[in-house]
Amino acid sequence: MAQQSKELDPEVKDYAVEKLRFRDHFSTLLLSGDWGMTLLEVALLGSLTAAARYLPGDRVNVAGSMPLKEVAALLWTKAAVARLYNAYCEAIFFSFPQYRIQPPQEHALKESKDLCGRDQRQLEIIHFHDCLTLLSQFFFNVGLYYALPGFYPATAGATDAPHLVERGLKLVANHYVLSFGMYWMHRALHVVPWLWDHIHSYHHWAKHPLSRNTYQDHWLDNLMNAIVGHGFAQVLVPLDRHTFWFSQLFRIFESLEKHSGVSCYFNCAHSLQRWLPYAQMPHHHDWHHEGHKSCNYTFSALGGLWDCIFGTRKGGRALELRPEHITRHDVAQGKKPGRSRSIMDKPLFCLMPVV
């Protein structure tokens, strides 16, 4: 486990001087840092690829959907992009300390805790759920292919291909539907005591998140978000093949960034969506991780519109960051006090939008 220097550089606003190289910090390209789990992932994706390549197409392909070999290619691509963009996000964190959201003492190693604030027992539990997430997500994705023909869109004909403007509007609508479902699922995971204690609190063991924490949850947390997020959004606002690919990869970028620990122009996905109403940056979600009371804010997966509408928007450490990296709504909100509890903070009512 890498150790951080406690020396400070007065020229860099009290941010710690990094004595170790990036590769000494990096969380590894192995899935959950484990060779066995990585080989299991390769075996699952390899078996899907082999089935698509060697079995008759009329047995494995679904009419109205992209061929199975493209589904396999999509899953391979998502696995590779998640690793590469995680490496990018962590490189930014360790190379540009002036863009970090939390001060260096928050990420300093404490006793047997890692950079994100988790102890060894918590890391072992997360490792177990990483394995269950791998298995459940793989079978969920393949199951969707056969259970919902057309969910993975087929290539449209030359005359059926949607116009670029139509694609853009449907993409925005799809992402707002996705964000609405994930907003209420996420809020319910905080509000319903059983869901918090037994499922979502695992993700919040990371008080000082880095991009490596993004999918480190209870496996049911990841599965429920996949259902109410990507699942419902694609059913209600179906995307064409090319836009579907873009959406899947963009969501990886956005998810990794909001856990990256930095908030600046290096956040590609968040910078692209800053024009959206009440758009958020990674410092909003970082505040969500800092403590239990702070967890009552910033539930949106994309944009930030739902946090604004339902009164859960909070700028967090925005006013401590560089002015060019905060949003105009952070400036307007300033240091306004926290929100009061509403009827939607009752477990029954909070679950209603999802159910």
What is this structure, in a nutshell?
The protein is mainly alpha-helical and 355 residues long. Helix content is 53%, strand content 0%.
Give an overview in words:
The chain contains 15 helices and no strands. It has about 350 residues and is mainly α. It starts with about 20 loop residues before the first helix and ends with a helix. The relative contact order is 0.11.
Task: Provide keyphrases for this structure.
355 residues, mainly alpha, 53% helix, disordered N terminus
User: Which segments are poorly predicted (pLDDT under 50) over 5 or more consecutive residues?
Assistant: 1-17
Instruction: Give the overall shape.
Output: globular
Share in helix:
40-55%
Mean pLDDT: 84
- What is the percentage of strand-forming residues? under 5%
Q: What is the end-to-end distance? A: 43 Å
- What's the tally of helices? 15
**Rg of Cα set:** 21 Å
Strand tally, please? 0
| Structural class determined from secondary elements | mainly alpha
Q: How do the strands and helices of this protein lay out in sequence?
A:
Blueprint: H1 22-25, H2 35-54, H3 57-60, H4 68-95, H5 104-107, H6 120-147, H7 164-191, H8 193-198, H9 219-236, H10 241-258, H11 268-272, H12 282-290, H13 305-309, H14 328-333, H15 347-351
Helix pairs in contact: 2-4, 2-6, 4-10, 6-9, 7-9
